[in-house]
Amino acid sequence: MAAAAVTASSSAEPPGLETQRGEIEDIIQGHRLRAGDSWYLLDLHWFKQWKEYVHMGDQNSSAFPGRIDNAELFEDLESCRLKERMVEEEDFILVPAEAWRKLLAWYGMAPEQPPLERKVVDLPSTLKVEVYPVEIYLCLHSDMDNALPMQFSRADTVHTIQNAMRGRFEVPDSAETRLWMKSSDTSCERLRNVHMTVLDACLSSGMTVIMEMRNPDGTWPSSRPQTVRNAMEEQDSYRGQPGVCGLTNLGNTCFMNSALQCLSNTPPLTEYFLRSAYLEELNFTNPLGMRGEIAEAYADVIKQMWSGRHYSVVPRIFKTKVSHFASQFVGYQQHDSQELLSFLLDGLHEDLNRVKNKEYIELQDADGRPDQEVAEEAWRNHRRRNDSVIVDTFHGLFKSTLVCPECCKVSVTFDPFCYLSVPLPVSKDRVMEVFFVSLDPAAKPMQYRLVVPKAGKVCDLTAALSRLTGIPSNQMVVADVFNHHFYKIYHSEELLSCILDRDDIFVYELSSSSVEEDGDEVVVALYLRERSNYRDYGTGNSNYSTSLFGHPLLITVSRNDCSHDALYRIFLQRLVRYVHPPDPSEEEEEEDEEEDLLKAHTPGVSDEEGEGDSQQPGCSALEDGVAGGAGEGSGSEGKQSDSSAEQAEAEAEPSGGTEGPSRGAGGDGEGENHSLTMPRPSEEEEEEEEGGVEEEQEENNHEDTPPSPPPNERPLKRQPKRKYRPPKRRKLLFTIQAVNSNGTTDRGMGEGSTFSFNSQHYIAIDWDPEMKKKYYNENEAEKYVKDKSMDVPHRLETVRLQRCIELFTTVETLEEENPWYCPTCKKHRLATKKLDLWSLPEVLIIHLKRFSYTKYSREKLDTVVNFPIRDLDFSDFLQWKPDPEGNPPCRYDLMAVSNHYGGLRDGHYTSYARNKDNGQWYYFDDSKVTYAREDQIVTNAAYLLFYQRQDKIRPPTLPSPCASSSTAVSPADEVTSSSQEELDGTTSFVNMETD
User: Fold this and answer.
1) Catalytic residue check, 828
2) pLDDT tens across 446-477, in order?
3) What is the reported pTM?
4) Is 254 a catalytic residue?
C-alpha cells in the first residue's frame, strides 16, 4: 500500500484521503499571517502530486507522492542553501506550521533534508514570510580576513547583530564597540543607530559588518577601517566624466538601476536637480506625496553620479525610501523597470508639485465643441492641479473617442499621459525545441526545432515533427521529462500553451499507431533506478533505497510479453545502445549469497519461496526455468541422465544464435524458452509436481544401481556436483519493479512472475551500483544529435516602431470587464474606443509591451522593434495642427534605452544612454560601464525608449571620447575603451542575474 512509504517518524496511521484534504485546505485557507509565526516551504511538484492523490481518493493510486522531498529547492544538500530567485506558486508553496506538522506525520521527510522553516516579518505596510533571510558577513576590525556568514531577519535590529557578534567573537560586555557597514564596492558607513532594523539600515546579503573596539587609551583603532580608507582615498583621487557612473546591484535591483540610468541621462530633469532647483519646490504637505523624501533621495543619487568622483554609486538609501512608500518593492525580488519608473515619476511629481491646494474641477464633455477648444480646456484643468518639473518635461495629451454601439453617441475627452505603452504585433507562430526518441534502439535521440501554432495543440507539434522525420504523427507520444521521470505525458488534444519554453520535451516513437486500453498492446513508461548499497530500514519494509537516473523511455509491449523474463529481454534490447550484456566468458556460478540477493530484489519472489526452493529438492521444471537454470537438480541421477542429451545440445549451440536473448534473460536451454513467458503454476500444481518427483526419487532409491546412459553421453556422466550446485548462468544486469508515476513506490509484480497493467503503466529497472558501473555507458546514454533544423538561426520577427504606434491608435472594442457608461442610453455598453496623440512632451517615453498576458497564456515577446536613433517623426500621428503647414515640433532623437534580457520569471536589466555633455553612448550594466556604438542599441531586448524633441536638444559641450583601443584611459576608470570584440559582445555578460 501507499501508506507503507511513510517514514518511521509517523506516530499514527494517517486518516482517510478525504479527511487529509479537508484538514489541510481548512488550515491553509483559514490561516492569516502574524508576525513571528512559522511557515514552511514545500516543493510545488510534491504538493501538486499530493493534491492529485487525495483528490482521487484511492490509497493505492499511482499518484501517491511518497515522502516530502524538497531536493529541487536546494542548490545542494550539503550546504542546504536555497536556490536563488525562486518564485512562490511556481517553485514552492508556503504552508502554516500546523499543516506542515500534519503532512510530516502522515508522509515523513526525505532523508538528509532539513525542514525549511521561515518566519513572518512585519515590514513597512505589509506582513510577509521571509523566504530569503539576509546573509551578512561578520568580522572584527583586528581580523578582517576571518569573516563569518550569519543570517538575520530584516526585522532584526542592528543591536541584534551587535549581540551576535559579541557572542561569536567572545567580545566582553564591558568593551566599548562600534559597527561599520561595508558593501561590495568597499565603501563603508557607520551604523550609528543600533535600534534601526536590518531593512532600514539598508543591510543586504553579501555585505560585511565590521566591529572595532576602543583602545585602552581611549582612542579607536582607526577613524575608518584601513581597507576602507584606502578605497576612499582611491575614489577621492578619481576624476571621470560626470554621469558616466555605475550603480551597485544591491540584490536583484538591476531593474531599478536601469530606470535610474535612463532618467539620469534625461538632460532637463538632471539639470533641474543639479542646480538644486528642487529645494524651493519640495512639497511637504501634499497628501498624495511622500513628504519630499523620494525627491531628496533621488537628488542625492543624481548628484553623486554627476560629481565625476565616483565610478560606482550605491543607491541603498534610495532603495529604502522606495520600499517605504511602495510595498511591492520591499525586499530584493526581481521587478519590472517600467513599474518602478511609473512609481518614481509619479512620486517625484507629487513631491515637487507646485500646487499646494488642489481645487475640485468637474470634467465636461466636448458636446460638439471644436477639438482645439476642448483640448486647451483639458490642459488648463490639468495644470491647475498638477504643476511640476515632471509635468513640464514628460506630460502630453491624448484624444480619446468613444462611440456607443447602440445609440452612436460620440464622447470625446482629452487626457494627460506620462508615457506611451504601445503594443507589439503578436506572432501566431511559436518556435519549440524537442528531442525525438526513435524506435530504433541504436539511434541516438535527435533534437529538432519546430515552428508550431502558438494557439495550437499537441497534435500540431507531432504533425510538424512528422514532416521532418517521416514518422506518422499517430505513432508519437509527447512527454515532459523532469528529474529523470515523466512529469507529464500529454494527450494530442492538449493546448501547447501549457508547455513552457524551459520544459524538456521528449517525443517518443511507438511501434503501434493505436494502443487501446483493453487491447493486446500497452505503452509502458520505463524508468532507470540505481540501488544504494544499504537497506532503507526507515521505511518499515527494509527495501534498498533507490534513486532515478538517465532518461526515461516509452515502450509498446504486448500483454502476452508481460512476464518478468520477456520484459527483461525487451528492455535489454531497447537499451542496447548504451547497455552491453556480459560476454559468455563472464558467466559465473551463483553463490548462495548472490542467489539470496537476487531473490530479495526480484519482484514476485518472497523470502519464503526462496527458502522453499532451496529446501525442496523436487522443484518443478517451470520454476527452474524462471530461476534461469536447471536448479539444484531433482535429486535423482536417473532423471539427469534422461535429459543429458538435450542439455548437451543446448550447451553446444553458439551463443550468438537465436537462443541468445533467452539465455541473456537467465534461460539455460531450448526446452525452457517457452516456460519463461508462462505464469507460475498454482500451489496445487506445484504440489502435484513435487509429489511426482518424490515418487520417482523413491523408485530410483530402491534400485541397486542407476541406469547407465548411452555410450555417446558418458562424458557428461562425470557431473556429481550438479546434484548440489547450480550450473553456470548469465548475470541479470537489473531487476524489475512496478512503480508509480514518480518512480518512487514499489508495487510488486502481481500474480506470479507477470505484470498487471490494469491501472498502472510505470516500470523501473533497478541497477546494482557495480553492475551499472560495469555495463551501463553513461556517456553514451547522454549523447544526442542535432538535426539540421537546429542550425537554422531562429529569425526574430522585426517590426518598425511606427507600426507599434499605429496599433496603439487603432479602434478597439472595450472588454466586458471594462464597459463604458453611455450617458444617453443610461447603460454600460461595450463601446468602441480610439486613442490619438494630440500633443507630445519634450521628453517622450515609449514603453514596448513585451510582456503579454491573456486569459490563456503568458509570454514575453522577443520581437525586434526597429526604432530610429534620430528623426523619429510623429507628424503622421499628431492630431493637433498649430499652423497652416501642419508642422509642429514633432521630431525626436533617442537618448536612452532600458533593456530586458530573459523571460517572464527572471531576467536582467541593462541600459544604453547618451551622455548630454560629450554625446557619447554608454552601456550601463549595474556597476560596469563601457562605451557603446549606435549600431548596438537596436536589439530584441529594448523595453523602454527615451526620446527628446529635437528643438530642445542642446549640442554637446565636450568632444566625444574616442572608443578605439588606442585611447589612453586611467587604470582606475571602469569605463575602458573596449576592443571590437567587446563592443560586439556587450550582451555576453547580461546573464549575471539569471545564471
Assistant:
1) no
2) 999 998 988 889 999 999 999 999 999 989 99
3) 0.57
4) yes
